[in-house]
Amino acid sequence: MRMTRKKWINLLWVLFMVTVLFTPAGFHIKVFVNRLISFSATEVAEADRETLSDYHWPLQTIEGKRVNLTDFKGEVVLINVWATWCPPCVAEMPSFQELYNAYGNRVPMLFVAHDEREKVARFLGKKGYKLPIYYEAGPTPTVLQSTSIPVTYVVDKKGSIRVRKVGAADWNSQKTRTLLDSLLQE
């Protein structure tokens, strides 16, 4: 039986889809694609903004130290919920590291992992990321709940959620830096 050009193309397409869907290489392809299509997150329109009125959210650092979101009330805060098994989450981590390097001493950044501690520690070590990782130690405030990850929030000093982005984004963009600078000045 002779393979026609159309059959070869179909076979290659099926092999590609199997690779993307069912092999570890597919994870890396998804991360790459998410990086390609990631743009700056946009600010929530003023009329659509929600306010974080209940800051109570017990968290625990990767080292086991207990903290609470209330510790950051009155500050500009960036909260990212992520996992190592999530391609869009992994795709945005390099831009988060760059943003953290630039703003980490002025803007608290809480990277809340939905993953096993050992996997997170291995991932951070392998990639060389130095991000402040937290785990939930109590219920998430209602306005910060999401059924999807990654989800990232930028909360201003008054508790207004200025950014709510589901999916990967370029967090080290000039647009994000301009927003953070203006929120720090308010």
Automatic annotation (TrEMBL):
Pfam entry (one): Redoxin
GO-annotated molecular function: oxidoreductase activity
**Key words, A-Z:** Cytochrome c-type biogenesis, Disulfide bond, Redox-active center
The record, for InterPro entries, names: Redoxin, Thioredoxin-like_sf, Thioredoxin_CS, Thioredoxin_domain, Thioredoxin_ResA/DsbE_sf
Instruction: Give the UniProt subcellular location, in the record's own words.
Output: Cell envelope
Q: Which PROSITE patterns match?
A: THIOREDOXIN_1, THIOREDOXIN_2
Q: Which domain of life is it from?
A: Bacteria
| Residue ranges annotated for the Thioredoxin domain, each copy included | 41-185
Q: Name one GO biological process term.
A: cytochrome complex assembly
Q: What GO cellular component term, any one, is given?
A: cell envelope
Its protein name is: Thiol-disulfide oxidoreductase
Lineage runs: Bacteria, Pseudomonadati, Bacteroidota, Flavobacteriia, Flavobacteriales
